[in-house]
Amino acid sequence: MIDLASLVDEPTPRAIAAAIARLITSGELAPDDRLPTVREIALGLGVSPATVSAAWQALARAGLIVSRGRSGTFVRSAPRNWLPRRYRGLDATGEAALDLSRGTPDPELLPPLGPALARLSLAAATPSYQQKPDIPELHDLLRATWVAPVESLTVTNGALDAIDRCLGVLVRYGDRVVVENPGFPPIADLLEAYGAEPVGVELDREGVRPDALSRALRSSPAVVVLQPRAHNPTGVSMSPERAAELAALLARTRGAEDTVVIEDDHSGLISTAPDVSLAVHIPERVLHVRSFSKSHGPDLRIAALGGPRPLVDRVVARRLLGPGWTSRMMQSLLFELLTETGARDRVADARRVYHARQHAMAAALAGHGLDAAAGDGVNAWLPVADERAALVHLATAGIRVAPGAPFLTSGAGQFVRVTVGLVREDADTIAAALADAARAA
C-alpha cells in the first residue's frame, strides 16, 4: 500500500491529489498501476472517504487516473493511439465543472445553421469530377475580402487540411521548417510525420521576434509557418509593422530565397486585430489560410487557401487524387453564412464578446497579482510555477485547462493554456483559482 501519510502535508482533497500526482509524475506510480481503494487511503490518513473521493475526482479531471468500475481505480494508461503524439498530451478525460482546455469557440456564440440550411438545394450539382473545385460565388466573395491581392484561391476541409496539403507539396524529408515556440501542437506532429526538422522561434507582443527569425533563416528552411492573428496558445496578434519587418528579413536573407511562408489565420472573423499578412510585401512567397471554424463552427471543416497560382495549383492537383474537393454543399452553406445579415451580425457580436471576455479575465488576473495582457481570440497563455501542480490544483476546483508542454517546441518553462473565450461569467472567481494554481508547487 502507498504510504501517503509521509507525503501529504494536510488532510485535504487538494493535498492528497497533489501527493498522488507527484508519485505519477516521478514514475513511482506507472501507467495501469492499480490504486488502493478510497477506504484504504482514508484509513491510512485518518480522513473521511468523502475527502479521498474528492481527491480522486480531481485527479480524474486532470486526466491522471481512471475508474474501471468494480476493477478499481488505476493510473491512466497510454493515451489513445489514434491520436497524434502532441494531441495525446491534450487528451483529458472525465467530467469537469468548467472545461477551459479545448481551445474551441463558445457554441452559444456561433450563428445558427438552420436558416442557411433551409435555403440550400439538397441536390449536389457535380456533373463532372474534373470541374473547378470551388463554387464561383464563394470564390468571388473570398477574393473580394482577402487580406491582400491574390493570384489563386481554393477551399479546403479546414485549416489543418490546407496546411497539411501545403507541407505535402513543399517539404521533403530532412527539410527544416520554422515554427513558433510556443505553437499549435498539430503543426509539430505534421512536421514529424513528414520527417521535417522544426526550428522554433520566440514571440513577443507583436508576433514572431525578428532576431529569432533572422537566426532561424540562416538554416535555409523550406517553410516558415506563422499564425498572424490570435496566436494559439498566447493570443498574440502580429502588428502590420512586424509583418513588414519579417517580410524584409525573408527578402534579404541569403539562403532563404526560396523559403515559403504558410500563414494560419485560424480565428479569422472573431479576431479583433486588423487582418495582416506578409503577402502584402512578398505575395509570391506566401500561402495564406483563413479558417471559419472559430467563427462559424468547427464541424463545418472548411477553410480557404490563397497564394501564388503555381503553389495553389499544386495543392489543388494533389487534392484531386485524394478527397477531390470540399463539398460544394458545404461551400454553399458557408456562402450563405457569410452573406446573410443575421449570421453576419451574430459573428460580429461573438467578436465583441470574446474581446470583452479576454479583457475581463486579464483585469481579474491583475487583481489577483498576475500580469496577464489581454489577448486576441479565445486563448490565454499563463506562466505557472509547476505545470502538473497547477493542473491538479485547478482540477480540485472543478476547472480543466490544457498543459503547456505540448505547445513547446524546445526550451524550458512551465505554462498552461486557458480558453478564456468560454468564461461566460464569474471571471473573478476563476481568476482567483488560476492565480492560486500559478503559484502552486
Word description of this protein:
The structure is a single chain. Among the domains are: 78 residues, Winged helix-like DNA-binding domain superfamily/Winged helix DNA-binding domain (Arc Repressor Mutant, subunit A, Orthogonal Bundle); 227 residues, Aspartate Aminotransferase, domain 2 (3-Layer(aba) Sandwich), CATH 3.40.640. Helices cover 40% and strands 14% of the residues. The chain is built from 16 helices and 15 strands. The longest helix is centred in the C-terminal third of the chain and has 27 residues. The protein is globular and about 70 Å long. The model has no long low-confidence stretch (mean pLDDT 91).
- Mean pLDDT rating: 91
Helix/strand/pairing category? alpha/beta
C-alpha termini separation = 25 Å
Name of the CATH architecture of the domain at 114-340: 3-Layer(aba) Sandwich
CATH fold descriptor of the domain at 114-340: Aspartate Aminotransferase, domain 2
Largest sheet: 7 strands, mixed
What strand order characterises the main sheet? Answer: 4-12-11-10-9-5-6
Assembly level:
single chain
Taken as a percent bin, the fraction of beta residues is 5-15%
Low-confidence stretches: none
